[in-house]
Amino acid sequence: MALLKGTIQYIETKHPEVNDFKYWDQLQDLVSDMEHMMADASLLNMANNLSKEDVDLIALIKGIHCGYMSQAVLQQIDFSLFIEPGCEAFFSYYNCDPRKIKQALINLIKNAFEAVTPGNYIHINLSCLFGDDDTPSKLSIQVSNSGLPIPEDEIKTIFTPFVTYKKGGTGVGLAVVKKIIDLHYGSVTVASDEDATTFTILLPL
Q1: How confident is the prediction for the chain on average, in pLDDT?
Q2: Is residue 159 very low, low, confident or very high in pLDDT (cuts 50, 70, 90)?
Q3: What band does 29 get if pLDDT is binned at 50, 70 and 90?
Q4: Is 84 helix (H, G, I), strand (E, B) or coil?
Q5: For labelling alongside 180, which of 69, 100, 111, 158 has CA 20 to 30 A away?
Q6: Residue 166: how many CB atoms within 10 A of its CB?
């Protein structure tokens, strides 16, 4: 791909008149799209490798939340983080790959920011699910946003690699989320209606 881009740049340098050709811009766009798809495919493959350690997920998620606050202000979005009382200890010491979990959460939050308009909200909610013996069995991380709902036919393939309904999208971001969470023996689901779109990650304890 680098060779192809280099060749195109060389041709432009030696023959600037090619910029007047009818399909020259389309060719450059096609090469750029191919480059992005290859990068995303590489990211999808890299998601296979985990490097686990004991992680403070609350600190990790607070860091992501803080990092996106300026964008929330710019887009006039209500961007909040809620931690269910009593669950802090279970989130504060969790064995996982922090870089991969961070990537998965960033992908979901980025996806939410692309879906909202001024006046909408994005909420991150951390809670625990309890088993039959009333002890926590799973961590729940939800990313919800208001705005237009996702059509039902799109939800069916939303985690399928390289399937996208976004202009300029590659269909890899949510596929990476699913692969990362699957490797942690968890699950990720989505529900969408007129009120909100909510992605829910469940991680086993």
Answers
A1: 84
A2: confident
A3: low
A4: coil
A5: 69
A6: 12
**Cβ-based neighbours of 7, under 8 Å, separated by 6 or more:** none
In sequence order, which residues have a C-beta less than 8 Å from that of residue 189 and are 6 or more positions away? 199, 200
Q: Which helix (H) or strand (E) holds 204?
A: strand 197-204
CA distance 84 to 64: 18
Residue 150, C-beta contacts closer than 8 angstroms, at least 6 positions apart: 158, 190, 192, 197
What are the contacts of 33-38 at 24+ separation with CB within 8 A?
A: 34/1, 35/1, 35/5, 36/170, 37/162, 37/170, 37/172, 38/1
pTM of the model: 0.77
Residue written as token pair 């991150």: 124
> How far, in whole angstroms, is CA 181 from its chain's centroid?
12
Q: What is the DSSP string of 143-190?
A: EEE-SSPPPHHHHTTTTSTT---STT--S-HHHHHHHHHHHTT-EEEE
What type of residue sits at position 125? N
